[in-house]
Design goal:
With 439 residues, the protein is α+β, with helices and mostly antiparallel strands. The protein has helices spanning 21-28, 44-63, 77-83, 111-121, 167-187, 242-252, 265-268, 293-298, 321-331, 359-374, 388-398, 408-413, 431-438, and strands at 32-36, 39-42, 67-68, 74-76, 94-97, 103-106, 130-139, 154-164, 193-196, 206-213, 219-224, 257-259, 276-291, 301-303, 309-311, 313-320, 333-334, 337-338, 349-353, 379-382, 402-406, 416-420, 426-429. Strands 3, 7, 8, 9, 10, 11, 12, 13 and 16 form a 9-stranded mixed beta sheet that branches. A 5-stranded mixed beta sheet has the order 20-19-21-22-23, with helices on both faces. α1 (21-28) crosses α9, α2 (44-63) packs across α5 and α2 (44-63) packs across α9 (321-331). The chain is globular. The protein binds adenosine-5'-triphosphate and magnesium ion (3 copies). The site of one magnesium ion (MG) has 3 residues, from β13. Its main location: cytoplasm. Residues 38-341 form the Aminoacyl-transfer RNA synthetases class-II family profile domain. Keywords: Aminoacyl-tRNA synthetase, ATP-binding, Cytoplasm, Ligase, Nucleotide-binding, Protein biosynthesis.
Amino acid sequence: MRLSRYFLPVLKETPADAQIVSHRLMLRAGMIKQTSAGIYAWLPLGFKVLRKIENIVHDEQIKAGHIPMQMPTLQSADLWRESGRYDGYGQEMLRMQDRHERDMLFSPTAEELFTDIFRSYVRSYKDLPLTLYQIQWKFRDEIRPRFGVMRGREFYMKDGYNFDLTKEDALHAYNRHLVSYLRTYERMGLQAIPMRADSGPIGGDDTHEFLVLADTGESEVFYDSEITDLTFGDREIDFADKAQCQAVLEEFTSRYARTDETHDEAIFNEVPEERRRVARGIEVGQIFYFGTKYSDAMNATVQDAEGNKVPVHMGSHGIGVSRLLGAIIEANHDDNGIIWPEGVTPFHVGIVNLKQGDEATDGACEQLYAALEAEGFEPLYDDRKDRAGAKFATMDLIGLPWRVTVGPRGLEKGVLELTCRRTGESVELSMEDTIARIK
Ligand code: ATP
Ligand code: MG
Ligand code: MG
Ligand code: MG
C-alpha cells in the first residue's frame, strides 16, 4: 500500500476525552471514529487489525474442531421468552419493535439462537459432539460505554456453543476451548490468564475468564505470581484427546488466580506472601459450562444409544474480538505510539522515502516495495512529499514492527536503514540483507 493512495486520517492532537492510552492511540492513528456513544466506525487501519485478529480466532477455532457459521444480529424476542431470559436480561438488551409490532432485539449473546438451530436439525447422539460458533457484532446498551472499543455498546465477539451427550463430553469441550483460547491469545502476543470467575446472566457452575493484566483493566484480580510463568508455546495438541486437554486445564489452573467475584481471602492467604499479587485485568474472553439450563428450557434433546430422549449438555464460550485491539495496545506501546506484535500488525514494514521526487531514492523505494511484496510481505510505503520527521512520527504512531528508511546519503554507500520499532535499534544494510533480516 502506498500512503498517498491510502486513507489514514492520523490526528496531531491528543483527543481530550479519551482517558486511556489505547483509546487515545486508536483515535490518533486513524483506526476508529466514534459515531455515537460506544459505537465506532472502523477506519481502514483499524479494520485491517480487526480482520487479522478475527482470522487468528477463526484459525484456532477450526483447529480445535469447531464449526463457523453466522447468525443474524436481530432476533425475535420469542426465543428469549422461551428460555426465560427476556425479562431478566435488563437494560443492557436493546429492544425494538418491527412494523407489525413484533418484539425484536439486537443480539447481546446468542445461546437461544444456537439452541434453536440445534433442536431444529439434530436428533441423534450420533451427531455429537458438535460445537458451532460465529464471529458477529453484538449490542449491549452498557450504562457507561468507555475506553473506546474496550467497552463499546456495539462490539465484535466470537461466541461458540457446544452440544454434547454427557457432562463429561461437555467438560471436554470446555477444556478444548481453554486450550484454543490460550493459543489464540499467545499468537496475538498477549498473555491472558484463565481465572475462576462468576457466571452472571449466562448461568452455570463452571466458568473461567481470561484476563490480560493491565493497570487500566476494569476487573480486580488476585493471583499467585507463578501463574505468569506458564506459556502454552508451540507444543503439539490433539484436540480429540480428552486427557491431554484436561492436563492443560489442570496446569493452567494449578495456581491461585481469581477475579474479585470469586476471590477467597482464606485460600489466597495460603499462597506464600511474596507470590501474592493484587492487580487489575482486562477480560478478553470467558468460557462456561452450564449443563442443561438451555436445553431443558428450550427442549433441545437427542436420542441416546438406548433410544431415550435426553437433554444435551451445553456450554458457551466468548472472545472479545474488538476489545482485543485495546488490550493489545495497552500491553504494547510507548510514548511515541503503538508497537504491534507481528501476528496482528496491519502492515509488516513501513518504507520511508527521505527525498520523494529524487530519481534514485524513488527508484530504490519502488524496488524495495516490489521485492517485499514478492516475499509475501505487506509493506506500507510513505511516498508523500513530507518532512522526514513527520513521516517517522506517523510510522512510530501506527507501530509497524519494522521501518526501512531510504535516502540519498545511504544509497551512495549502497545501504538502507532498518529500524526495529520495539527496540528502536537501527542498522545499515544492503537491500538484500534488509529483506533477509525482516524474514
Ligand atoms: P464485562 O465483564 O467486561 O462486561 P462480560 O462478562 O459481560 O464482559 P461476556 O458475556 O463474557 O462479557 O462476553 C464475552 C467477551 O466479550 C468478554 O470476555 C469481553 O471480552 C467481550 N465484551 C463484553 N462486553 C463488551 C463490551 N461492552 N465491549 C467490548 N467487548 C465486550
Ligand atoms: Mg458485561
Ligand atoms: Mg465479565
Ligand atoms: Mg464475561
